Amino acid sequence: MACPVCFGGEDPVVRESITAGISVLLGVTLVVLGCFARFFVSLARRSRAAAHLTDERFEKAVE
User: Does the predicted model carry a pTM greater than 0.70?
Assistant: First the structure.
């Protein structure tokens, strides 16, 4: 159930404003989720690089 403003309202300005507000909120949410994903990708890459460096140092110490 929607209110008259959201569903079949007569004022197109209010509907456009609500649609713009929802779009902005969805955009902000997507940006934040994208930043989290980028952060975890960055952590995975750094972890892989650190493991590679540790392996090289271990091999040099064994020789």
Answer: no
